[in-house]
Amino acid sequence: MKNLNHLFIKNTTWLFTGILSLFGFSCSDSNDPYDNPVEYGSPHAYFRIKGKVVNETDQEALSNIQVEIRYDARQQDPASAIYYRDTIRTDIHGEFQWGTHKITLWHMPLKLITSDPGENPGRDPFVPDTTLINFESADMQDPGSWYEGSGEKEITIRLKQQTEKPENPEPEEEKNKRITYEKTVPSSH
């Protein structure tokens, strides 16, 4: 009896497997655009920014200007863990290039914070500026299923020269009054 039960279950399994495989082929041939197969992965794209930083008054190219790129999805969704930050500098022609291959950045703009680190002797510093850049789906080229394409933006950032000094510069006497800590070495006696 035990052998007969085992033989019946084995043959029934083969029969149902054959029937389901025949029906399975016809079910996957659908013309419905919303009937997509389940895929695993993350949407991603390539984003590129080409830019130039110039003086607002005479359009002269500014070298050695710091450009900080920030993307923070936590501003829109506090539960999001997507945060990105990168810093680059302009070359001697005032130009910079930045690119990244990341998850899609549709929901939040990229924030470019441009500042003069004050490392150029003989040049007055410039006022920091913030520029927002949005990548839209129309900006993307050659999208695929998970690859959403590549997009490029070209910008020119005009910085104003700082005309006044900081409000409360620290007097020389105050600099000398700062507390300093001396390192004491225990004696070996």
In short:
By secondary structure, the chain is of the alpha+beta class.
Q: Can you characterise this structure?
A:
This protein has helices at 2-27, 172-176; strands spanning 44-55, 66-72, 83-89, 95-103, 110-115, 129-133, 140-141, 147-159. The chain has 189 residues and is an alpha+beta fold. The strands form 2 sheets. A 4-stranded mixed β-sheet has the order 4-1-8-7, with no helix packed on it. Strands 3-2-5-6 form a 4-stranded antiparallel β-sheet, with no helix packed on it. A hairpin with a 5-residue loop joins strand 7 and strand 8 (147-159).
Helix-strand blueprint:
Blueprint: H1 2-27, E1 44-55, E2 66-72, E3 83-89, E4 95-103, E5 110-115, E6 129-133, E7 140-141, E8 147-159, H2 172-176
Parallel strand pairs: 1-8
Antiparallel strand pairs: 1-4, 2-3, 2-5, 5-6, 7-8
Overall pLDDT: 76
The stretches of 5 or more residues where confidence is low (pLDDT under 50) are: 175-189
Computed structural class:
alpha+beta
What's the story with the biggest beta sheet?
4 strands, mixed
Oligomer: single chain
- Which bin fits the share of residues in helices? 10-25%
Which series of helices and strands comes N to C? HEEEEEEEEH
Give me the count of strands.
8
Strands across the major sheet, in which order? 4-1-8-7
Shape: rod-shaped
Taking Cα atoms only, what radius of gyration do you get, to the nearest Å?
31 Å
| First-last Cα distance | 94 Å
Number of H- or I-type helical stretches: 2
Question: How much strand?
Answer: 25-35%
